[in-house]
Specification:
There is one protein chain. This protein is of the alpha/beta class. The protein folds into 2 domains: about 45 residues; about 270 residues, 2-enoyl-CoA Hydratase, Chain A, domain 1, CATH 3.90.226. It has 11 helices and 11 strands. Strands 1, 2, 3, 5, 6, 7, 8, 9 and 10 form a 9-stranded mixed β-sheet that branches. Strands 4-11 form a two-stranded antiparallel sheet. The longest helix has about 40 residues. It starts with a helix and ends with a strand. About 10% of the residues have low confidence.
Length: about 325
C-alpha cells in the first residue's frame, strides 16, 4: 500500500513539473521571439492587422461576406500570438463583421457554421456584432449555413440569421449552458497533497479543486448558469419566433438532426452551399452577387503564429472553469 501511495505521489509531482516546464518554455520563447521581432520592425506591432478582401465566387457590385465560424468559440487567453500578432478568433470574427458593416457594398453575410459552441460572453459579443450589421441598414441580411454542426453557442450565433439552412447530416441545437471543473480532493488525500488558501471571503475560492464544493457554492453557481440559460432561450425565442413554452421541451441540451430541427423550427431549410447562395440572391433581389472573404495580411511569422502558439495556449487553459454553451 505504501509503495502504491509513493508511486501516485511521484506521478503527481512529475505531472506538475512537466506543466511548469511547458509554461516556462512557452513564455521564454515569447520573450526571445518578440525581442527579435522588435529589432526587425522597431518594436511596432499593429494590434488590429489590416484585412485583405478575397473573392470567393461570383461577380458584380453587390458583395456578400462569407464568414466562417469553425471550432470552439474561445478567446485567446494570451492576448497575442507568437510573433506579436493577435490570433484571437473572437476578435478576428468581430473585426470582419465590423469591416463588412463599414463597407457600403456589403449587403449580406453568409454565416458558415461548423462549431460545437464555446464560451458564453465571447459568443454573445459576436452575436451582438452580427445584429449591429443588420441594424446598420434596413436592406442588410444574414443567411446562416450549417455544415456539420451548429450546437450550443454556435446556434446562439446561427439565430442571428434571417434564414437558416442546414445540411441533411448536420447536428443542431444543444440549447443550454454548462460549467465544469475537476476536483482532486480524493486524489490529494490519497497521495498526501494539501492546498493552503488565504481568502477574503468564504466564496472567494469557488470550485477549489482540493476541497469538496459546498452545497451553498453549488447553488450560487447554479443560479448564475440558470440566468445565462434563460438569456440563451430568450435569444432563440425572439429570433426564431418560438414561444418559450414551445421551446422548453427541446431546450434541455439535446441535439437534433436536420429533420427534427426543421420540424421544431430551429432551422428553415435543409440544403447545401449552393442553396445558401441561391437564397441569398433571392433575399437581396440580385441575379449576381460577389461572395468575398476577409483575410488578415501577415508575414510568414504571423501565419506560423496563428497555427502554433494559439493552439498551445488553448490547450493549456482548457480546464479553466467558465460558463460555457458547448456540446461535447
Amino acid at each position: 500500500m505504501a509503495k502504491k501511495k509513493n508511486t501516485a505521489l511521484w506521478i503527481a509531482i512529475l505531472f506538475l513539473v512537466a506543466m511548469l516546464f511547458i509554461s516556462v518554455s512557452v513564455n521564454l520563447g515569447l520573450i526571445v521571439v518578440n525581442a527579435i521581432r522588435g529589432g526587425m520592425d522597431g518594436g511596432a506591432a499593429s494590434s488590429r492587422p489590416r484585412l485583405q478582401e478575397e473573392v470567393s465566387s461570383g461577380s458584380g457590385h453587390t458583395k456578400v461576406l462569407r464568414l466562417a465560424v469553425n471550432g470552439p468559440i474561445m478567446r485567446n487567453v494570451s492576448g497575442g500570438g507568437l510573433f506579436g500578432v493577435q490570433v484571437d478568433m473572437v476578435e478576428d470574427l468581430k473585426r470582419k463583421i465590423e469591416s463588412a458593416t463599414a463597407d457600403d457594398d456589403v449587403a449580406a453575410i453568409i454565416l458558415e457554421v461548423n462549431s460545437p459552441g464555446g464560451a458564453v460572453t465571447p459568443t454573445d459579443e459576436i452575436y451582438r456584432a452580427l445584429l449591429d450589421f443588420k441594424e446598420s441598414r434596413e436592406d442588410r441580411r444574414i443567411v446562416t449555413f450549417v455544415r456539420d454542426m451548429s450546437a450550443s453557442g454556435s446556434y446562439w450565433l446561427a439565430v442571428a440569421g434571417d434564414w437558416i439552412i442546414a445540411e441533411p447530416t448536420s447536428i443542431v441545437g444543444s440549447i443550454g449552458v454548462i460549467m465544469q471543473s475537476l476536483n482532486w480532493s480524493t486524489l490529494s488525500e490519497r497521495v498526501g497533497l494539501s492546498a493552503t488558501t488565504i481568502k477574503s471571503g468564504r466564496n472567494k475560492d469557488l470550485l477549489n479543486p482540493f476541497v469538496e464544493t459546498p452545497e451553498e457554492q453549488k447553488q450560487l453557481l447554479q443560479e448564475m448558469i440558470d440566468s445565462l440559460y434563460m438569456r440563451f432561450k430568450q435569444v432563440v425565442s425572439e429570433q426564431r419566433g418560438i414561444p418559450l413554452a414551445d421551446l422548453e421541451p427541446i431546450a434541455d441540451g439535446r441535439i437534433l438532426d436536420a429533420d427534427s430541427a426543421l420540424e421544431h423550427g430551429l432551422i428553415d431549410q435543409i440544403g447545401y452551399w449552393k442553396d445558401s447562395l441561391a437564397y441569398t440572391r433571392d433575399l437581396l433581389g440580385k441575379e449576381e452577387i460577389k461572395v468575398i472573404r476577409y483575410k488578415q495580411r501577415g508575414n510568414f511569422f504571423q501565419v506560423f503564429a496563428s497555427s502554433s502558439l494559439n493552439e498551445i495556449t488553448r490547450l493549456m487553459h482548457a480546464d479553466t472553469p467558465r460558463a460555457m454553451s458547448i456540446w461535447r
